[in-house]
Amino acid sequence: MKTLPLGNSGVEVSAFCLGTMRFGSAHDETISSRMMEMYIEAGGTFLDTSNNYAFWVKDCTGSESETFLGKWIKEHGNRDELFVATKVGFNTPAIGKSLSAATIMSECEKSLQHLQTDHIDLYYAHCDHRETPLEETLTAFDALIKQGKVRFIGASNTRAWRLEEARNVSAQNDLAEYCCIQQRHSYLRSNAGVDASVQLEANADLLDYVAARDITLLAYGPSAHGTYTKMDQPLGGSSAGPDSDARIAALKDVSSETGATPTQVVFAWMLQSTPPVIPLLACSTEAQMQENLAALQVTLSAEQMTRLTDAGV
Ligand SMILES: NC(=O)c1ccc[n+]([C@@H]2O[C@H](COP(=O)([O-])OP(=O)(O)OC[C@H]3O[C@@H](n4cnc5c(N)ncnc54)[C@H](OP(=O)(O)O)[C@@H]3O)[C@@H](O)[C@H]2O)c1
Asked: Which segments of the chain have a pLDDT < 70?
């Protein structure tokens, strides 16, 4: 699979990251394993999990995804070939929202155990936590890097100005800095003023920020939960409006010009953006995985990229 630089980390990662949020919980072991196999057979090596996936599923506690991955990777003996990302800090009944040094240190140990590994390649602050001083959070992450337990750090659900603050704190204190940002991002965008609570969308500010700094945007929710497969149905929710009409029209046009499905066009648009956006691929079936992976073969012209990006502006 094609690779892309991960911010200023100096490493390259797979152009598609595999989102494993539902593995071992909403998705049983059989389908979770199949998704892993298909992704890895396509050459992918970049896995995304969290210390809280998926506590909201009935009878689950939040360690299911990490535990599934740990077992799968051990059985396949391929830890060294993979780049594993996990996260800390999101509000859960068991842990509570926190990026304190104590939470980061203790949750890292638990994640290492669940993942059955001695290091995490990329460790995210899962959401911003303004009650904890950035210096405390970054000092804890930096200590984990010095201990060899973490290689790189990233942020998620964090606004651009807070990323810049964090970057300054790292520079002033000689601490590791966030190399990437994971935010909600798809082709359709929410109407202005929509309160997404903690799950922040990559807004114009953030897109401008990542273009100006050496920091990679990773898109969660890229397929907008299959929305682009049902564009003839009325669009509900926070994206519906004049902007979405124009964007759906552009997507349909580019889809018919290229022969790619609308979902594939969305993934190709992300990968060919400047700077490229890495989508977090999540699929419930083999057919979806095949369709989405094939987006790697879709090439959009410069004119099509501009038309898609500018639609609805
Ligand atoms: N940092 C954060 O706060 C955060 C938040 C959420 C997620 N994430 C990460 O991002 C990953 C992806 O997030 P997400 O699951 O919300 O992404 P998504 O792309 O919005 O949704 C994935 C779902 O969309 C449907 N889908 C995908 N491809 C399709 C296709 N070609 N045709 C039809 N339907 C398709 C499937 O749902 P159906 O079951 O309906 O078919 C699939 O399970 C997660 O696994 C997790 O790793 C991070």
From this structure: none
Q: Residue ranges per domain, the chain?
A: 3-239+264-301
Strand partners, 205: none
pTM score of the predicted model: 0.97
Q: Which protein residue has the closest C-alpha to ligand 1 atom 41? A: 284
Percent of the chain with pLDDT over 90: 89
Atom of ligand 1 nearest to the CA of 263: 31
In this structure, CATH architecture of domain 3-239+264-301:
Alpha-Beta Barrel (3.20)
Given ligand 1 and candidates 283, 290, 291, which is best to mutate, with the most ligand atoms within 8 Å of its CB? 283
Angstrom distance (rounded) from CA 112 to CA 69: 11
Quick one: which of 7, 93, 85 has its CA closest to 46?
85
User: What is the amino acid identity at position 257?
Assistant: E
Look up residue 75 and give its amino acid.
E
Give per-residue pLDDT as tens, 241-253.
Answer: 778 999 999 999 9
